[in-house]
Amino acid sequence: MISPTIFAKSGKRLMGLEGAGAASYFSAFGECLSVPEFVFVFRSRRPPGNPVNAMLSFGYQILWNHLLCLIEIQGLDPYQACLHQTSERHAALASDLIEEFRAPIIDSLVLWLINSKVMDATLDFVYRNSGCFLNDSGRAKFLHAFLRRMEEEIQTDSGEKQPRWDLFVQQVKAYKQFVYNPQMLYKPYRIY
Known about the structure:
Elements (H helix, E strand, L loop, with lengths): L10 H19 L21 H23 L18 H24 L9 E4 L2 E4 L1 H16 L1 E3 L5 E3 L1 H16 L12
């Protein structure tokens, strides 16, 4: 485990630490699955190699697209980011902001969909172009569960209740506030 007392002295070092953390996290992810038809050994993408990776990739893309829309609505430049490398073809700010939501929103949803036997490893996926993807029935099931999860109310730091959708808007606005006033440090979303 990486000690929280280690501070990165460069962006490259920070991304290396993030990569090492992700590798450790995903190596344990498969142990949380209780349905033998769903096997997860490591994270694969472009293309996803199995049904678990297909659901993770699909969920991350939905989340990324939603964040990109909110970033643009707030008038922020989606190509200027803090962590992910900026290019004219990659809206890196959406990649930065998605990080705090992957595990509590998408990863937990994928675990629930599998362990609750909502998804069927043979009926909800298609293999093509050297990868595995959700088919029509799989996408419908995933989207239905995703929307239900996003409409669930959660308690905020101030004790108020709000739907999960509002978290994204608040975090993008908080990032915008940080951009225009760096003394107002950006606080990432914390899982309770």
